[in-house]
Amino acid sequence: MIITxxxxxxxxxxxxxxxxxxxxxxxxxxxxxxxxxxxQGQCASALGLVQEPGVFxxxxxxxxxxxxxxxxxxxxxxxxxxxxxxxxxxxxxxxxEFKLDIIRQLLRPALPGGLNLVIIDTAPSVGRLQEAAxxxxxxxxxxxxxxxxxxxxxVKVIHTVNALVKRQNWRGSVLGILPTFYDNVTRESQQTxxxxxxxxxxxxxxxxxxxxxxxxxxxxxxxxxxxxxxxSRPAKEYADLVWRVADYLPT
Length: 251
Known about the structure:
Strand order of the largest sheet: 3-4-2-5-1-6-7
Largest sheet: 7 strands, mixed
Distance between the termini: 13 Å
Radius of gyration: 17 Å
């Protein structure tokens, strides 16, 4: 199974969600590969690893999937790291008019031959590479902050997904919209959460993840929330997401 984390707005917690979900599922015994398609390359940093042009080398056909996959020092969790050269890869692929199924085809050697799933982190931008990441997905999760601009990025992802269904016969589904940086003591957070539920339907809105300093500390220290503060509120909130995803996986 392939799960894509996407929002065309930056600063919404995509990388935190991707890394936390991937490690959480690995802890649950699922062999998991984290693919970093964001040129910022922060998945490696969040795991305390060095950024590498692994995505570039994979996408332009220089190296095989096995050659660009790195261990993370965490059981059952592997990473294909990225860095700023990922943006160059997209330029090269655009020039070659690559097919939308490129990512699923590149991941084929790993699925289903041992891996339970792949988690894809994407860049906060509109582009054909993000479309390819969405097209590859069996499930899509859309993190979004709960501020007055929250719906804008979500609408763009939903629009892209709908276009893939209509034009490319995409057979995946949106697992849900994940509100992040939620603060239940501010009126704006609650109003935005209400707006999201009215706009997209309450059934599509996942339980929110509260704003927490510990999540920023995790990124700075190269640890996941499961390693730094497994009993904290954000860990419990992300655990809900882990179990929701696990319900979709074969036993």
